[in-house]
Design goal:
Layout (H helix, E strand, L loop, with lengths): L8 H15 L7 E7 L2 E8 L7 H14 L7 E8 L7 E6 L58 H7 L2 H14 L8 H16 L6 H19 L8 H34 L7 H19 L8 H48 L3 H20 L5 H49 L3 H17 L7 H39 L6 E5 L3 E6 L1 H17 L2 H25 L2 E5 L5 E5 L4
Parallel strand pairs: 2-3, 6-7
Antiparallel strand pairs: 1-2, 3-4, 5-6, 7-8
Helix pairs in contact: 1-2, 5-6, 6-7, 7-8, 8-9, 9-10, 9-11, 10-11, 11-12, 11-13, 12-13, 13-15, 14-15
């Protein structure tokens, strides 16, 4: 909400007069008046006829000064330039004010836990608005309608025609009508009253407006005293008072300069975030405001207010320093994050192994962490949020790829370990375990995802693993057959006496009939023959035939050639397995 502003014409006159005297010292005789009505400000500048100023310089200076005051009540200003004694102005210029007094001084910096800004000096002016100065001639002036400077041409003749007596009379009249020449000196009393009013405003000043009014009152008092001529009996007294008032006014001017710097800092602090350069400028303004107020003497009536403002401004400065530090840090973090992101993209373009993808992920995480450190309220924060949204999908992509690479690495390494176990089992003729291991190793190879670092290596091992599995299965089949043949022969050779012994390899089986068995068969056959026991003889022949059939069945089942030897080592029979 914008603060209502009342225009103090007298105060504005003094401010503009000060600007003229400061920037155009050669034209110190300029006299300025202001009036305001219905949003229009009228400024009339008069000058001695013998000292004609550059009108453009005066108008430009006044326009800058008026704009600098941020007068929200004024929509348009019109300036007039007139020579003393003339009825009409001879130059005019108008300009519009489109920059109203804002709320800068009543707002805070816009960040959390920061104290409110100092009040704007100009927003505290509440004097009533007088009638607008007419640019036209007054009723008295309308008696004549002469051009702006018509009498300059005949001024020397008039002066030359004045008699010495006239000059003396006029001089006496001037002396008698000068301030404080005779009777009471109202200029002294007026100055004293203004000084008293100024002191009252400074007893407990609550804002810069009190200081501003006090200074204006002192300035008016000084003007009253300066009007007292040197021949007045009050001149010496006036000069002493002038020195005192001028010191007081100068002291107040220093305070007002400090408040002005604070106002500038306050306005520039609005609507953060600000760049590092802007915070540095704001920091400098607060430092200058503090430095100005620190000049206030303890004996000054404005000392209490200065101390109050100093405490407040130091708090603002500390807050600005903190924001400056945060802005600088945020800028560094943003640069660091962008640098890490570039490195991550480069590494991602050449990454292959699991280790290289892990490094890419770590680099992206570093960039994200730097961005997440950037605090709100900095110019880098919005950029950081945009980069986070841009980097997050890339980080997720890398993480997914890393999971694939990790799975691929595990599957590939598992296949290598199991393949080594399969080889060890084969070396120990543990073909059952070897077959299972080769089958598992081949399964792990086939699980390695396509496109991963280990995919090509895994595919190159698939043929050799498949061959090893096939060989192991063949070996297992043979080994199983040999085991079964051994079991069968153990059964055939068992008995009392023992029928036979044997050796078995993958290529042949050799069976050896025992001597005890051969002798028993022979003895049984001879005894049966001697007794004429035909049945026993048939039984012996049938037993021998059955034994041969058993040997043949073992050879057929094992698919291994068999040789049968007698007790004396003579080959009795050879059996080729049936296919």
């Amino acid at each position: 909400m914008q603060t209502a502003v009342q225009l103090d014409e007298k105060l504005l006159e003094q401010l503009l007069q000060d600007h003229l005297q400061l920037e155009l010292p050669d034209l110190s005789a300029l006299n300025l008046r202001c009036a305001y009505k219905d949003g229009k400000l009228v400024i009339l500048v008069q000058h001695p006829i013998e000292s004609i100023p550059d009108k453009q310089s005066v108008f430009s200076l006044l326009e800058r000064a008026v704009r600098a005051e941020n007068l929200s009540a004024v929509a348009q200003a019109q300036m007039y330039l007139r020579a003393e004694g003339e009825k009409r102005p001879y130059a005019t210029q108008t300009f519009s004010l489109d920059v109203p007094v804002g709320e800068a001084a009543e707002k805070n910096f816009g960040w959390t836990k920061f104290p409110p800004m100092p009040e704007t000096i100009g927003e505290e002016i509440t004097d009533e608005i007088p009638e607008v100065i007419s640019a036209e001639a007054t009723p008295e002036e309308k008696q004549e309608d002469a051009p702006a400077l018509p009498w300059r041409a005949w001024l020397p003749a008039v002066v030359g025609s004045i008699s010495i007596v006239g000059i003396l009379c006029l001089g006496s009249l001037y002396v008698m009508t000068s301030p404080c020449t005779s009777g009471t000196c109202k200029e002294i009393s007026n100055a004293q009253q203004l000084s008293k009013n100024s002191a009252q405003n400074l007893q407990r000043p609550k804002s810069g407006q009190d200081i501003l009014k006090a200074r204006q009152q002192l300035q008016e008092a000084i003007q009253n005293l300066q009007s007292i001529p040197f021949w007045s009996s009050q001149h010496q007294n006036a000069q002493q008072m002038l020195k005192t008032y001028q010191v007081q006014a100068n002291a107040l001017e220093e305070v007002l300069k400090g408040l002005g710097k604070a106002e500038q800092a306050s306005q520039k602090s609005q609507n953060p975030p600000h760049s590092e350069a802007e915070w540095l400028e704001i920091q400098k303004l607060w430092q200058e405001a503090i430095a100005q107020l620190q000049k206030t003497s303890q004996s000054s009536s404005a000392y209490s207010l200065s101390q109050q403002k100093l405490k407040l401004y130091k708090g603002y400065l500390a807050a600005v320093n903190q924001r400056l530090t945060e802005e600088q840090q945020a800028k560094k973090q943003l640069v660091s994050a962008q640098s890490a992101a570039k490195i991550a993209e480069t590494r991602q373009g050449i990454a292959q192994s699991l280790e290289s993808w892990q490094l890419v992920e770590t680099t992206w995480e570093t960039a994200m962490k730097e961005l997440q450190k950037i605090r709100p309220g900095t110019t880098a924060y919005q950029d950081a949020q945009q980069l986070i949204n841009a980097y997050k999908p890339k980080l997720n992509e890398v993480r997914d790829r890393q999971v694939q690479e990790k799975f691929a690495a595990n599957a590939y390494n598992q296949s290598l370990q199991i393949a080594q176990q399969a080889q060890n089992f084969g070396t120990n003729n543990q073909w059952g375990q070897a077959t299972g291991s080769w089958r598992n190793a081949l399964s792990y190879l086939k699980q390695v995802p396509k496109g991963t670092y280990y995919y090509g290596q895994a595919q190159s091992l698939v043929p050799s693993y498949a061959d090893a599995l096939k060989q192991a299965e063949g070996k297992l089949q043979i080994f199983t057959a040999l085991q079964q043949a051994s079991k069968d022969l153990d059964k055939v050779c068992a008995g009392t006496p023992k029928v036979c012994s044997y050796t078995i390899t993958t290529s042949e089986i050799k069976v050896y009939l025992t001597t005890a068995y051969a002798q028993k068969i022979k003895q049984t056959a001879l005894e049966a023959q001697g007794k004429g026991d035909y049945k026993t003889q048939v039984g012996v022949v049938s037993h021998v035939y059955s034994l041969g059939e058993s040997f043949g069945a073992v050879s057929d089942n094992a698919r291994i050639r068999m040789e049968i030897y007698g007790p004396d080592g003579v080959l009795l029979e050879t059996h080729e397995p049936k296919i």
